[in-house]
């Protein structure tokens, strides 16, 4: 029974050469996925919301609901 | 006076661990734990002593044969020589036990016991919850949050349909 001599040197280098490119690629993928899946849609949602935002109307609605402390409801 | 007595005591013990004849005292007894020991350890692959200390006649002759050329040794003889020097091979000493089953069982048991303790506490130790948990209070709370337009872009109020006064489908 004569087995081949196992690798004695360069073990860390071999591991790094294999795993570092994969790690790099996966981190890039993660960053891209977050950018296009989370931050992009969120920015768009905020842009769309404020495109049709009527400040005065919302203010009057909130005031009638009675949530303000320094502005009285209309009709008082 | 006390110090010299203490020193002489230390001197006696130091000499007795290395077997030597000292005056009329004879050879001091050497305890087993003081001698080099054999143990199977992954991080210490070559222990200080062989595993088998008293060799049988067959093993003695094998050791003599080992002093010659190793090419003449058969595979069984090589394995026998290995087993003289070592108790377990690396594969044998590294294999896992079935201990994890007991560990998981113990974990579940203690989590269950903790659950029982928590249930008992809720019933017998803690007082009633605050009034803010009642349904009427919660309804008023939700209405006020919608009035204040909490998180109107992506969150709470974004899910409420203000025209039809109902939750968005």
From TrEMBL, chain A:
It is a single-pass membrane protein. Pathway: Energy metabolism; oxidative phosphorylation. Keywords: Membrane, Mitochondrion, Mitochondrion inner membrane, Transmembrane, Transmembrane helix. Pfam families: COX6C. Gene3D superfamilies: Mitochondrial cytochrome c oxidase subunit VIc/VIIs. It is found in: Mitochondrion inner membrane. The keyword Glycosyltransferase does not apply. It comes from the Eukaryota. The keyword Ligase does not apply. One of its GO terms (cellular component) is respiratory chain complex IV. GO terms for biological process: mitochondrial electron transport, cytochrome c to oxygen. Component of the cytochrome c oxidase, the last enzyme in the mitochondrial electron transport chain which drives oxidative phosphorylation. The respiratory chain contains 3 multisubunit complexes succinate dehydrogenase (complex II, CII), ubiquinol-cytochrome c oxidoreductase (cytochrome b-c1 complex, complex III, CIII) and cytochrome c oxidase (complex IV, CIV), that cooperate to transfer electrons derived from NADH and succinate to molecular oxygen, creating an electrochemical gradient over the inner membrane that drives transmembrane transport and the ATP synthase. Component of the cytochrome c oxidase (complex IV, CIV), a multisubunit enzyme composed of 14 subunits. The complex is composed of a catalytic core of 3 subunits MT-CO1, MT-CO2 and MT-CO3, encoded in the mitochondrial DNA, and 11 supernumerary subunits COX4I, COX5A, COX5B, COX6A, COX6B, COX6C, COX7A, COX7B, COX7C, COX8 and NDUFA4, which are encoded in the nuclear genome. PANTHER family: CYTOCHROME C OXIDASE SUBUNIT 6C (PTHR48416:SF1). This is Cytochrome c oxidase subunit 6C. It comes from Oncorhynchus mykiss. The gene is CX6C2.
TrEMBL record, chain B:
It is found in: Mitochondrion inner membrane. InterPro entries: Cyt_c_oxidase_su4, Cyt_c_oxidase_su4_fam, Cyt_c_oxidase_su4_sf. Gene3D superfamilies: Cytochrome c oxidase subunit IV. Keywords: Membrane, Mitochondrion, Mitochondrion inner membrane, Transmembrane, Transmembrane helix. The chain crosses the membrane at residues 103-121. GO terms for cellular component: mitochondrial inner membrane; respiratory chain complex IV. It comes from the Eukaryota. Pathway: Energy metabolism; oxidative phosphorylation. It is a single-pass membrane protein. GO terms for biological process: mitochondrial electron transport, cytochrome c to oxygen. Belongs to the cytochrome c oxidase IV family. Component of the cytochrome c oxidase (complex IV, CIV), a multisubunit enzyme composed of 14 subunits. The complex is composed of a catalytic core of 3 subunits MT-CO1, MT-CO2 and MT-CO3, encoded in the mitochondrial DNA, and 11 supernumerary subunits COX4I, COX5A, COX5B, COX6A, COX6B, COX6C, COX7A, COX7B, COX7C, COX8 and NDUFA4, which are encoded in the nuclear genome. Component of the cytochrome c oxidase, the last enzyme in the mitochondrial electron transport chain which drives oxidative phosphorylation. This is Cytochrome c oxidase subunit 4.
């Amino acid at each position: 029974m004569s087995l081949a001599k196992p690798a004695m040197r360069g073990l860390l280098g071999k591991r790094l050469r294999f795993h570092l490119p994969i790690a790099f690629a996966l981190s890039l993928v993660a960053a891209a996925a977050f950018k296009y899946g989370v931050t992009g849609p969120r920015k768009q949602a905020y842009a769309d919301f404020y495109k049709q935002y009527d400040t005065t109307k919302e203010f009057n609605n909130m005031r009638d609901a009675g949530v303000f402390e320094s502005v009285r409801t209309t009709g008082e | 006076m006390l110090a010299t007595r203490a020193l002489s005591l230390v001197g006696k013990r130091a000499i007795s661990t290395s077997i030597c004849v000292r005056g009329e005292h004879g050879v001091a007894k050497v305890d087993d734990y003081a001698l080099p020991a054999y143990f199977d350890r992954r991080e210490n692959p070559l222990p200080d002593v062989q595993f088998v200390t008293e060799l049988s006649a067959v093993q003695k002759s094998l050791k003599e044969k080992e002093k010659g050329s190793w090419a003449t040794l058969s595979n069984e003889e090589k394995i026998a020589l290995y087993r003289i020097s070592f108790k377990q091979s690396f594969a044998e000493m590294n294999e896992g036990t079935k201990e994890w089953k007991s560990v998981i069982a113990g974990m579940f048991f203690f989590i269950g016991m903790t659950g029982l303790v928590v249930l008992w506490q809720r019933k017998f130790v803690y007082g009633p919850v605050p009034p803010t948990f009642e349904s009427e209070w919660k309804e008023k709370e939700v209405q006020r949050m919608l009035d204040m337009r909490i998180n109107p872009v992506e969150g709470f109020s974004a899910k409420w349909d203000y025209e039809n006064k109902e939750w968005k489908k």
